[in-house]
Amino acid sequence: MNIYTKRCDIDPRVLDNVSRFLRQYGINEFFYGITTKVIPPYSHQFKNLKRRIPADMIKCRYGVYSSERVLRFRHLYLQYFAADDSAYFRPHPMGMSIWADPDYSGPKGQRFAELMAEHQFCSRGVWHLPTSYHPDWLCAFVYFSDLPREELLARLQPHEAEIETQLMMFASYFNEQFISQINPISNFNCLSERSLTILRLTAEGYSSEELAAKLCITESGVNYHLDRLKELLNAKNRVQLISMGYSLGLLS
């Protein structure tokens, strides 16, 4: 199984604290990342972030997750099931959502039930939180439980406010530590490594001429990348481009 996603280099003690906090409410596993809204209009220009189709999302480069078990489930779900799961494309509200069972019929429904049983999951959901990086982005804790859906809901609802407050703190820490890896633009391969390199070196003060010499490309090639970056990030000039790079977590 070729899994693209790597775990961010998180302190194991922090990961253990998050896992222990969630387990007391019946959540056994989680995957954290920054995702994008599915409701237009969008204020960014990246096609695969607008579509958010499983074939793009499966190539997520980094995440914060509780175990390899949840990573394997995520990969198999996106590869074989998400495209036909209406819950995946439904615009979930901010805060807590517990997903209903997917409306698969026939053999696919049976295979999904087997996948859940194999990973010892009975129910799943997502907790969406706001982020200041971009108006179309959301922090997302995708979570899994060995409890049935109604029982998990009964465990979570009485403590919803305090859980959300704590998740906001965890999300803030993850973003502060790993935004250059988990921002959706770089995490979902919206920009080439060459474009990201040119952006970083421009932020360090290199001119187009210096960049061309350093990267062994033409100066017009450098300017093409810069013009394309300005278009994609809605920047009017290099100064604004660099500012946008920092605000979106592309530069650290």
From TrEMBL:
Q: Which InterPro entries match?
A: Sig_transdc_resp-reg_C-effctor, Tscrpt_reg_LuxR_C, WH-like_DNA-bd_sf
SUPFAM superfamilies to which the protein is assigned, alphabetical: C-terminal effector domain of the bipartite response regulators (SSF46894)
Cross-referenced SMART domains: HTH_LUXR
Per UniProt, the keywords (alphabetical) are: DNA-binding, Transcription, Transcription regulation
The residues covered by the HTH luxR-type domain are: 184-249
* Entry protein name: LuxR family transcriptional regulator
Name the species this protein comes from: Shewanella schlegeliana
